[in-house]
Amino acid sequence: MLGVVLHAPGDVRTEELAMPVVIEPTDAIIRVTATCICGSDLWPYRGIEAVRGPQRMGHEYIGVVETVGDAVTLVKPGDHVVGSFVASDNTCEICRAGYQSRCVHQVMMGSVGTQAQYARIPLADGTLVPMPGQPPADLVPSLLAASDVLGTGWFAAAAAGAGPDKTVAVVGDGAVGLLGVLAAAQLGAERIIVMSRHADRQELARRFGATDIVEERGDEGVARVRELTGGLGVHSTIEAVGTQESMDQAIRATRPGGHVGFVGVSHDVSLDGLELFFSSVHLHGGPAPVRRFLPELIRLIWDREIDPGAVFDLTLPLADAAEGYRAMDERRATKVLLTTD
Amino acid sequence: MLGVVLHAPGDVRTEELAMPVVIEPTDAIIRVTATCICGSDLWPYRGIEAVRGPQRMGHEYIGVVETVGDAVTLVKPGDHVVGSFVASDNTCEICRAGYQSRCVHQVMMGSVGTQAQYARIPLADGTLVPMPGQPPADLVPSLLAASDVLGTGWFAAAAAGAGPDKTVAVVGDGAVGLLGVLAAAQLGAERIIVMSRHADRQELARRFGATDIVEERGDEGVARVRELTGGLGVHSTIEAVGTQESMDQAIRATRPGGHVGFVGVSHDVSLDGLELFFSSVHLHGGPAPVRRFLPELIRLIWDREIDPGAVFDLTLPLADAAEGYRAMDERRATKVLLTTD
Questions:
Q1: Distance between CA atoms of B180 and B161, rounded to whole angstroms?
Q2: Among partner residues A101, A242, A256, which is closest to B94 by beta-carbon distance?
Q3: Fewer Cβ neighbours under 10 Å: the N or C end of chain B?
C-alpha cells in the first residue's frame, strides 16, 4: 500500500509500505477513503519540530472497516467510520469525563500514520464512530474534517465558553480557527471577530458566521478588539495558532472573567504568571477530545446543517502528498485533502 | 489616628497619620474595628516586592461607617460593614459578571491602607456590605477573614470546581489555603488533600474538613497525590502560594480536564505553554472577587455555620504591628489580627 513518510525537513515522500495488521485484539484495520494534511504536520516538515528519522505522517482519516481484532464489538467490517486523531478506550474515568484525548490508554494517531491507503486503528471500539451508511461523495470532506480540525475548533469554542450573548474573538485563520468560527456560530455566539489578513480566509470566515474582521496583529490587534467591545475585551477567545504572539494576543483580548480556549500546539510559548493572574481569564485547552463531539458532528454534517469541508481548498492524490505539503507550507492552500484510490 | 507604614524592607512602623476625609462623593469613611496582616504584605516587607518609599499597609478590614459622601445611598453612618480588599462599583459589566476585583473603576485597598484606625473606602455602595447589626465579639475574627482570606479561599475553591464527588488538593497551608479547605468542604467536596508540613496547620486543616495530608513537596508531592487518586490526579486544585514550585505542583497534581484555581499572587512564575497544553487542565485565578461572595459568607458566619476566624493565631494592638509582621515573617504566626482601640 502507499503511505506518506517524512525523511527530513522539506523531504516528504509517498512510498510503498507494508500493509498494517491487527496487533492487539482491540485493533481494527481500515481502508482509508480520505485523509489530509494538518497545520501541525508542518512543524516537523519545516524543521521546527525535530524529525526523528523517517516518520509516518498523518492523523486524520475516514474509512471503511476491513478487519477487526477479537475484542472489537462496536464496529464491524464494512462500517463507514470517522475516528479521532487520538485513539482512546472511551471507558476510563478520563474518557468518561469527556477528555478522550487524554485517555489513560491514549495512542496518538500521528504515531500510526493515516496518510496512507490503510491504517491500524488502536482501541477501535472507543475511537471509531460509524456513520449512518456510505457517505455521499460531497460529504466526504466535511466528515474528514470532523476527525480533527472541526472537532478541534469545536472544542476550542466550547472551552472558550462561546454561546448566546457572547462576543467571541478568533486568533488564527487556518482551518482550525475558521472551524472555530463555525462552531461558535453553531453554539449561538452573538458576535464573532476574526483576526485575519487573508481575503480568501476572511470570506470563508464570514460564510461560517464571522461578523467582524480585524486585520491588525499583536498589541494593535488587541487594541482594535477592545475598541470593538467597549474597552472590555471579548467574553471568549479561540486561540488556534500556538505561538507566543497568538497566546499573548488571545489572553489580552479577553475580558476579566472571560474564557480563552487554546488549541494551537504550543511552540516556545511561556506565559508570565503575574500577567495571567491579573488577566483574570479562564484558560483551557490542549489536544481536543474530538471523540466527545464526533456523534453530534457527524449528525450535523449528515443532515447538511454545517459544511466544514469548505476549508479544503486543494485535493490531490496520495501520490502527490509532497505537493500538498508544499502548497500548505507556502500558504497556497489552507488545507489539503488526499484521495487514496 | 494611628496607621501602619512600611519604610523599607523589615522596617514597618505604627505612626500618627492624618484622618482620612471624603474625597469623592462615592466615598465613605469608616472607623476600622479590626484589621490584619496578609501573607501578601510580606512580599514588600521581605523586599521581594519593591518598597516605593514609605507606603501605607493593609487591605483587610471591618468597621463602622462614620461619614458618607453625597452619592452614597446603600450604607449609612452607624452601619457595621465588611468590605472587599478591592473597591468596586458593583454595577459595571465586569462586576455584574461576578468579577468585582477587576471592576472598571477598581481601587486596590492596599493603596489606601486599612491597617489604621480609620479608612477611606472608595465606591462605598459597591464595596461595603452591611452586617445584620453589631457583631458579637467572638465573630469579629471570622467577619474580618471574609474581607480577603476567606473570600479568596472561597474563590479558589469555586475556580477549582470543588464540589460533590470531587477530590480536591490544596497547595499552600497559609490562611488562604486553609480557608480553601473550609470552602471546598462547604461546597461539598468528597475528599480534600492538603499539602502541609506544619503540625499546627495540619490540625486546623483537618478541623476545616481536610481528609488527607501530604507532607512531600515538588515532584514527590505530585507523585503522592497521584498515588492517592488512582494515578489520575485530583479533579480540583487550589493553589495559594504564588511561586513557580507551587504552580507547577498544582498543575501536575491535577488530572486532564480538571481545574486549578490559583490565588497566590504570582512571583517570578513562568508557565511552559507545551506543558500547560498537554496538562489539559482548566486554569483560572487572579485577585479574588470577594464582593461576589460577601453576602453569603457573612450569613454563614452570622449563623455560626463556619468559623474561618480560627486562622488567626495571634492578636496584637495596632501599635504593635511591627511584632505582628515579624511573627508572620518568622512563621511564628499564621495570621495576625490587629485591634484598633
A1: 12
A2: A256
A3: C
Whether residue A280 and residue B287 make contact (CB cut-off 8 A), yes or no, is yes
> Residue A264's pLDDT band (boundaries 50, 70, 90)?
very high
| DSSP string of B56-78, one letter each residue | E----EEEEEEEE-TT--S--TT
Of A102, A230, A242, the CB nearest to B280: A102
Taking the CA atoms of residue A148, residue A149, residue A155 and residue A158 in that order, the dihedral angle to the nearest 10 degrees is -150
Three cell numbers, residue A205: 470566515
Distance separating alpha carbons of residues A94 and B255, to the nearest angstrom: 8
Complex ipTM value: 0.96
Shortest Cα distance from B34 to chain A (angstroms)?
28
- Residue-wise pLDDT for B271-299, tens only, equals 999 999 999 999 999 999 999 999 999 99
Strand ranges for chain A from DSSP E? 2-8, 11-16, 28-37, 55-56, 61-68, 80-83, 86-87, 107-108, 118-121, 128-130, 167-171, 191-195, 212-214, 234-239, 254-262, 270-272, 282-285, 314-317, 336-339
Average pLDDT, chain B: 97
Which of B262, B283, B242, B155 shows the shortest CA–CA distance to A262?
Answer: B283
Q: C-alpha dihedral over A138, A140, A144, A149, to 10 degrees?
A: 0
Whether domain A153-285 has CATH 3.40.50.10540: no
Q: Spell out which chain B residues touch chain A, with contact meaning CB-CB distance below 8 angstroms.
A: 93-94, 97-99, 101-102, 104, 230-232, 242, 244, 247, 255-257, 262, 265-274, 276-287
Measured distance CA(B324)–CA(B310) in Å, rounded: 17
Q: What is the pLDDT of residues B4-54, one digit of tens each?
A: 999 999 999 999 999 999 999 999 999 999 999 999 899 999 998 888 889
Which residue type sits at B270? S
Per-residue cell: A161: 465558553
| Closest CA of chain A from B227, distance in Å | 15
In CATH, the architecture of B152-285 is: 3-Layer(aba) Sandwich (3.40)
In the numeric block, the cell 485547552 is attached to A285
Considering only alpha carbons, which residue of chain B is nearest residue A276?
A: B286
For residues B281 and B256, is the Cβ–Cβ distance under 8 A?
yes
Q: Which three cell numbers stand for residue A13?
A: 515522500
Residues of A in contact with B232 (CB under 8 A): 93-94, 104
Contacting residues for B13 by C-beta, under 8 A, at least 6 apart: B4, B5, B7, B321, B322
Domain boundaries defined on chain A? 2-148+289-339, 153-285
**Cβ neighbours for A23, distance < 8 A, ≥ 6 positions apart:** A120
- How is residue B223 written as a grid cell? 507523585
Residue B313 CB: number of other CB atoms within 10 A? 16
Count CB pairs under 8 A between chains A and B: 120
Q: What is the reported pLDDT for B163?
A: 98
Taking the C-alpha atoms of residue A81 and residue A72, their distance in angstroms, rounded to an integer, is 14
> What's the whole-number mean pLDDT along residues A103-111?
96
Record: fold of A2-148+289-339: Quinone Oxidoreductase; Chain A, domain 1 (3.90.180)
With a CB cutoff of 8 Å and minimum separation 6, the contacts of A38 are A58, A59, A60, A85, A148, A149
Whole-prediction pTM: 0.96
CB atoms within 10 A of CB B220: 12
